[in-house]
Amino acid sequence: xLQKDIEKILIxxxxxxxxxxxxxxxxxxxxxxxELVLVSILRGGLIxxxxxxxxxxxxxxxxxxxxxxxxxxxxxxxVVQLIKDLGEPVLGKNVLLVEDIIDTGLTLNYLMQSLKAKxxxxxxxxxxxxxxVRRIVDLDLAYKxxxxxxxxxxxxxxxxxxKYRNLPFIGVLREDVIQR
Length: 180
Ligand code: IMP
Prior knowledge:
Elements: E1 6-11, H1 13-30, E2 36-42, H2 46-55, E3 60-69, E4 80-84, E5 94-102, H3 106-116, E6 122-130, E7 143-147, E8 153-154, E9 170-173, H4 175-179
Parallel strand pairs: 2-3, 2-5, 5-6, 6-7
Antiparallel strand pairs: 1-9, 3-4, 8-9
Inosinic acid is lined by residues 44, 73, 76, 100-108, 131, 152-154, 158.
């Protein structure tokens, strides 16, 4: 059982569902009559994207980027390797980057630079979680689900060593599991 490795649940399934619905409604209002592309980052952003997409009521397309970060969680280096780029051009389109969690902000900063170079009409960020206490790079977040404290969280797409993504809530991993 995955659940036995969880110290506590920070954000429940119901809380996530309600918040995602509200964010979807806000995005639908803000981008009404605009050409919107949601860009998700594999693999962590997958579940949030899938739910957010269904909470949006206006026409929308999706695209993916995949990256791999060097360094462990404790020393997020901001050195990111692009493994998969967008499938289609976003020139002149409204791009909304959908992220699972913003921690130091270094990864997002890299992604924003890479996307800006593709000359979208607008470029904004929607993140499910914001761990702002660890922020190094100042970034504007247009949509945000929840603030989280400086703890390692898993579930709802977020992993530890590629596991725990399938937990339906956001939970804190037990310290001994992280040390193992
Ligand atoms: P940043 O470059 O420090 O902002 O790191 C962002 C990336 O680190 C996220 O997209 C996640 O992949 C990962 N990350 C940061 N904090 C956590 C966490 O608490 N749990 C799981 N992954 C995390």
